[in-house]
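Weekly modeling sync, notes
Attendees: S.R. (lead), two postdocs, one rotation student

Agenda item 3: backlog of single-chain predictions. S.R. asked that every request posted to the team notebook include the full sequence so nobody has to chase files. The rotation student volunteered to paste the first one in as an example of the format we agreed on. Action items at the bottom.

Example entry:
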Amino acid sequence: MGKAQGERLGGESAVERTFVLIKPDATKRRLIGEIISRFERVGLEVEAIKMVNANSRIVEEHYPDDEGWLKSVGNKAIQMYKRYNLNLVEALGTDDSLEVR
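Predicted structure, as returned to the notebook:
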């Protein structure tokens, strides 16, 4: 997302780049502008922006297809729903940690 000047060993200057992914819930809550503004306020420059609606192929390329990992992600989601007193089954249609994503 941004560029920042850094120092390497030996005094060489380096350009750092950071990838920022804004998740769908932030998009639905209309927070994209606020998120980008926070980076700009601290002096980072937006170099490129691309909006992608991830389909199954894209998701499969970026996340492991490992049952243990999927269950861990599902359990984290379940805990977040419980923490905020949200109805998991109503929102996602299941409370199975392997199906919650």
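Discussion: group reviewed the output briefly. Residues 65-101 form one domain.
Action items: rotation student to repeat for the remaining queue; S.R. to check formatting next week.
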